[in-house]
Amino acid sequence: MTLGRGVPVKERAYTYTKAQILDGVLAGGALISEGQISQALGISRTPVREAFLRLEAEGLLRLYPKRGAVVVPVSAKEVEAVLETRELIESFAAEKIARLGDEALAQLVEVLRTRIEEQTQLREAGDGKGFVAADQAFHQLIVSAADNPILLDLYAGLRDRQQRMGLSAVAHDHDRLSTTNREHIKLVDLLERGDIAGYRKALREHLGGTRAAVLHGG
Q: Confidence band (pLDDT; 50, 70, 90) for 66?
């Protein structure tokens, strides 16, 4: 990860450490020290200490005085909470999308299918991280189409947790990329037909696959 030298050191320490956690480089349960991060970035320990405090407040680190910090693992409770919230938001978004006019719906479907093509290319290239980011973008497009900024902000607040869970799912289920591609195609087909009951069922199954992959990895 490249961080510009113009970025304040405490922000560099925070961004670097958080990226290491979200990308799975620092796995749940890993013990890290201020010295480890300061050495990697070539900075003093003070901004690293501030970054660790900030990450502890976000629930990503648990600090132990004079020992360092432990990366908080993704818990089963967190997985359930995130996926339940996603199901509620994305199902509601689908209901609103069903009330869009034919032209607006056709435009959305076209964009979603383009995103699926991009995901296919990332899958074929073996780019798991890129695929997970594209997966998040795909679902966020659906939520955005509901045209509810408060709901979209709530959904965006799940981004970090979704990234961590998505990478964990990919790491523990080698077929997850192909399965996700197929499930996304099905979701778009159901949206296009206006089959919201079918969409809800397919979405629940789609999120259930993530749940199984993440919890199996834990």
A: confident
